[in-house]
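Researcher: Let's continue the batch. This sequence belongs to ABC transporter permease, and it's 271 residues. Same format as the previous ones, please.
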Amino acid sequence: MKQQKIWFVVPYALWIVLFVVAPLVLILYQSFFNINGQFTFGNYQNYLTSNVYLRMTFNSVWYAFLITLITLLISYPAAYVINRLPNRQFWLLLVILPTWINLLLKTYAFIGLFSQNGSINQFLRFVGLGSHQILFTDASFIFVAAYIEIPFMILPVFNSLAEIDSSLINASRDLGASSWQTFLHVELPLTMPGVKAGVQAVFIPSLSLFMITRLIGGNRVITLGTAIEEHFLTTQNWGMGSTIGVVLIIAMFIVMFATGDRQKKKGGRAK
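Model: Same format as before. Here are the structure tokens for ABC transporter permease:
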């Protein structure tokens, strides 16, 4: 029996070592070498003392915050409504359906909508408002990123809402609470684990977006994700790119710790 369990564990252990631990170790190792292959701490010093990298860090956090906030403000009411609809699994499937489409294809679809000769500007010219620069702006980048991330916020929130025991809601109303009071004091606290999971699923990837940033934001939106792409593909400074990667990994763990469920352990000696 124990041998069978070991054989089941081995594939998972190999997967974690090869595709999780090994890349993390390689990125950390590479971050201590400069462009000439010499061991140095200069990459971290350069990152911490450079106004350019610090501004990129601020931009990345700010954009990720806005994307997460917009996604949450849209997803929570949507999940709340879907949870109360008949055939709710069908409506949830319609929300998840866009995630099955390739990310690059969705991005190019928005380029077709936002470009100077795109559908939106054609409509604006038709109604006499003239064309506007929609593509390569902060607003277009945030809009597209939020649209793509919405399903990843709706799913955990929907699951948390679906798991709420209806007897708790009925008890709240029997005690005289209004719908708003029931939502505020019963439903919202019980869905916080789903909200936190959604924040993790949206905020962390949003910190390191680069393809959407390049194609939708252009040169107006500069983040750590685009900096990593630049160092690995253009300047070939893998050490600096790895250093930024280490910073993003640290940021990921900070976000996971801040939004994780930390239950206080209560205990005492029996008397």
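Researcher: Any comment?
Model: The chain has two domains: 15-49+224-259, 57-222.
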